[in-house]
Design goal:
369 residues; alpha+beta; five-stranded antiparallel β-sheet; 5 helices; 5 strands
């Protein structure tokens, strides 16, 4: 068994050495080479077709990877939008539904490209390595035939040849010729057929790709049209001022149960002002300012001034419409500009004597004078 393997290996090495020698002689121009111009044209078409198929396979797979990346990015974006779109806003349910539809469309596109474009492309491209092996084998058999042919020619030109060896050499040449011609004939049929198949494959493959893209973009356009409609409705609600909003009451000044005010520190803000108190007899008055003016003088006041108050605590304004003042500042209490405007409980409208600045301020930070 070992001798058989050794003999086969020896013959293989000798055959490869003989082929290498024949190729060198042909390349040096010392031995003629059997040529087939039609086959060379088929081979050139095959090489171009294989390069194009490899390039298409690479780019389609890269495109599919990008589609899947976009699918993930789109899903994440829609989830974020659904999370930050508040429940009270118009169209929140529609936004969620369209986000789900969008995710399904991306998944469907990726699935179609994988099953109906990439898999057929893999099958198409798998033909080339097998055909390449057959072409390479045909090349080896052609070298064998040329080598046997050259051997016969040398023996034929030798008048002292051994006839038995000459006959055997001619038989080997014929065998090599038949082996080569069988492969060459098959490739003359298979290579043009493979080359022609590129058209039908490309048509079918690209039709599937473009049809899938058309459906995807058509349906996603509907989804984004719906999403645009949702946002437009929200914008109109904002413009009309009909968007539901949470209302929060103004914070009341912090009061201590037993405030202690130090006369030695009139500007101290550590002590909190007491809440304004008024009796039930004040409830019937139409002017909400009256209940805070107990003890205030109304004589010799400028027009529009109801009474004056003096700041007993420092107040830091929190809104644009509020009046900021220091302890001891004098404020003229006036009526609201719009009598129908709702007056907030515990707040007065006033103008500072020193600057003329006008705004709302808490009544219990002041005392009437």
């Amino acid at each position: 068994m070992a001798d058989t393997k050794g003999g086969n290996l020896s013959r293989l090495v000798l055959k490869q050495a003989g082929r290498a020698k024949e190729k060198i002689l042909q390349n040096l121009g010392k031995a003629d080479k059997t040529t087939d111009e039609i086959f060379e044209e088929h081979l050139q078409n095959f090489n171009t077709q294989q390069v194009n198929a490899t390039r298409l396979h690479k780019d389609i797979n890269n495109y599919l990877r990008c589609i899947r990346a976009m699918q993930t990015a789109s899903k994440n974006l829609m989830e974020t939008l659904s999370d930050i779109y508040e429940k009270e806003w118009v169209g929140q349910d529609m936004l969620y539904v369209q986000a789900q539809n969008n995710e399904m469309l991306w998944a469907d596109l990726a699935h179609k490209l994988s099953d109906q474009v990439v898999i057929p492309l893999n099958t198409y491209q798998a033909q080339f390595p097998e055909m390449r092996k057959k072409i390479d084998k045909r090349g080896r058999k052609l070298i064998d035939f040329d080598a046997e042919r050259h051997s016969v020619q040398q023996m034929q030109n030798n008048p002292n040849r051994n006839e038995a060896k000459f006959i055997k050499a001619k038989e080997q040449m014929e065998n090599a010729k038949r082996t080569y011609e069988v492969l060459n004939s098959e490739l003359h049929d298979e290579l043009p057929a493979l080359h022609d198949s590129r058209i039908l494959f490309l048509v079918t493959n690209m039709q599937t790709l473009f049809a899938a893209e058309e459906v995807f973009h058509s349906e996603t356009a509907k989804v984004y049209s719906e999403l645009e409609g949702v946002v437009d409705k929200l914008a109109k609600e904002v413009q009309k001022g009909t968007l539901p909003r949470k209302t929060f009451p103004k914070p009341l000044p912090i009061t201590n149960v037993n405030p202690v005010i130090s006369n030695s520190s009139p500007n101290s803000t550590l002590a909190s002002p007491p809440k304004g108190e008024w009796t039930s007899s004040d409830e019937g008055k139409t002017n909400g300012f009256d209940k805070f003016k107990n003890g205030a003088t109304t004589d010799n006041l400028p027009p529009g001034v109801l009474y004056k108050v003096k700041a007993t605590y420092k107040y830091q304004a929190e809104d644009m419409d509020e009046l900021q003042f220091e302890v001891g500042e004098i404020i003229d209490v006036i009526e609201y500009e719009d009598p129908e405007e709702q007056q907030e409980e515990g707040w007065l409208m006033g103008v500072k004597d020193t600057t003329g600045q006008k705004g709302l301020f808490p009544a219990n930070f002041t005392k009437p004078i």
